[in-house]
Design goal:
The chain has 11 helices and 12 strands. By secondary structure, it is an alpha/beta fold. It folds into 2 domains: about 80 residues, Winged helix-like DNA-binding domain superfamily/Winged helix DNA-binding domain (Arc Repressor Mutant, subunit A); about 200 residues, D-Maltodextrin-Binding Protein, domain 2 (3-Layer(aba) Sandwich), CATH 3.40.190.290. The strands form 3 sheets. Strands 3, 4, 5, 6, 7, 10, 11 and 12 form an 8-stranded mixed sheet that branches. Helix 9 links the parallel strand 8 and strand 9. Helix 1 packs across helix 4 and helix 6 packs across helix 11. The chain is rod-shaped and about 100 Å long.
Length: about 300
């Protein structure tokens, strides 16, 4: 039935006021137009809702039984409308993100702070996972979007570059390499290198680089988390190759540039193909793109 909500509002206005005249004034309708709306509602429902007399209007049994559910219906509708407007205006909502651990400890926290300062009512849920898990979480709809590498992209996912990160060598300040402006991969072949876990996209890239050059990678220690790898480097247990974005900003490690084109890697937005992001997620992506576009290459 067309205009059902309008007709329900008309019935409730009469029920609340007990008068067609008062209800018509409240709704800015003529009494005849209001009467037509009530009649159309009764015809649609197949019951009489109101008993009319020249001086009085009362509810029938059907009118009494339907009044509460109709009031709840309008309240639920109002809540839906106000909630949707809050979401559109970014006054509330939830944004779920899957991102590489290196980004979660480096490039993303400033973006999170900027977004939270602007939209404190929106909750952010961040999952730091390896590259393969990012793809799976996005594909399964467990997160709104992912931020990771292009590797192993599959059907149904879109990838949009947001920044270019570079692998660099992290060494302690007292290490002989710390004074070098740059280094080649061949010079690293004899160094014990602390590696991330075997399911890490960084570990995979490091192994690919050495293999492509026919160089021997000398593993030192291994740890799943980049923060643990960094702690090992601080203790002088070896050097490591990690993304520049993994720098924790403590100032006790030195980055040495690697002279090799292959150390650059694209970091991008991973989304389900054809799926539009929520207003909150879309705004977060805008802020993230703006921040990461200024990230040093």
């Amino acid at each position: 039935m067309k205009n059902a909500i309008q007709h329900i509002r008309a019935f409730l206005a009469v029920a609340d006021s007990g008068s067609f005249a008062k209800a018509a004034t409240e709704l800015n309708l003529s009494p005849s137009a209001l009467t037509v709306q009530i009649q159309q509602l009764e015809q649609w429902l197949g019951v009489t809702l109101l008993e009319r007399s020249p001086r009085h209007v009362s509810l029938t049994n059907a009118g009494q039984n339907n009044r509460g559910p109709m009031e709840k219906l309008l309240l639920d509708l109002d809540n839906i409308v106000s909630g949707s407007r809050d979401l559109a205006a970014l006054r509330r909502g939830v944004v779920t993100i899957a991102a590489l651990p290196s980004l979660c400890s480096g490039a993303l926290p400033p973006v999170l702070k900027t977004f939270r300062d602007q939209f404190p009512g929106v909750e952010i849920r961040l999952r730091d996972v390896v590259a393969q898990r990012i793809d799976a979480l996005v594909r399964e709809g467990e997160v709104d979007f992912g931020v990771g590498v292009r590797a192993r992209m599959s059907h149904g996912l879109d990838f949009q570059v947001v920044m270019v990160d570079r692998l660099t060598v992290f060494v302690p300040a007292q290490h002989p390499l710390a004074s070098r402006p740059s280094i080649t991969l061949s010079e690293l072949a004899g160094e014990p290198i602390i590696l991330t876990g075997r399911d890490s996209s960084v570990r995979e890239r490091v192994e690919q680089l050495f293999s492509a050059e026919g160089l021997t990678l000398t593993p030192g220690l291994e740890a799943n988390y980049m923060s643990t790898v960094m702690a090992m480097v601080r203790q002088g247990l070896g050097v490591t190759l990690l993304p520049e974005s993994a720098d924790e900003g403590r100032g006790d490690l030195v980055q040495v540039r690697i002279e090799h084109d292959g150390v650059n890697r694209e970091i991008g937005l991973i989304t389900r193909a054809g799926l539009e992001l929520s207003p909150a997620a879309a705004r977060f992506v805008e802020i993230m793109k703006d921040a990461m576009s200024t990230h040093p290459v």
